[in-house]
């Protein structure tokens, strides 16, 4: 019964949401505010860089402290949470920097802004290669693979215990479901944008649809063959 109610609510919200979206004047265009948006994205990325740099330094210092008992347990919990925060910020920085350089190119921004966006992207890529290496600092007593190693993800999974694998499974399954829903919503938004502006987004629709098909097929075939 609850599922039926939520389905009806979703249908009503979706109907009025699509009606409102179709009423929006999409033709106002994005280029007029491209400079401001690009500058904000670069600023956000730089703030994330500062957090990553400070947190990395703190983690290295705490890893070299000689602690015992409760203090050691608290340090391990802090290190684990901070490393998770670092990975999140690192991924967000990479995505935002790609968005920034994309906006710079598409909206024809000044050369200095394009160079700044490119520099931020390069630093994001550098952090993406360096941050995973902190695992050996956080867990010096464990035989964990190095980030540059081939099949890093598989080796990391093999080196994890049952509890860690269960936590990974929970996170990955939630991510899979969220990604599915997000991409389906993205498909709808691309269609609405195409209708509202007359600017065809068929290429984007095709790519997102292909990603949905491939990821779902990979997941379902994997569990089917086990």
Overview of the structural elements:
This protein has 226 residues and is an all-alpha fold. 80% of the residues lie in helices and 0% in strands. The chain contains eight helices and no strands. Helix 2 packs antiparallel against helix 3 and helix 3 runs antiparallel to helix 4. The longest helix is centred in the middle third of the chain and has 38 residues. The N terminus is likely disordered.
Write the layout of secondary structure elements.
Elements: H1 2-23, H2 34-63, H3 69-106, H4 111-130, H5 135-138, H6 152-159, H7 162-197, H8 202-224
Short description:
The chain has 226 residues and is mainly α.
Order of helices and strands: HHHHHHHH
Please give the share of residues in helix: over 70%
Query: What does the overall shape look like?
Result: flat
* Main sheet properties: none
Beta-strand residue fraction: under 5%
CA radius of gyration is 22 Å
User: What is the structural class?
Assistant: mainly alpha
**Unreliable residue runs:** 1-12, 19-28
Mean pLDDT metric: 77
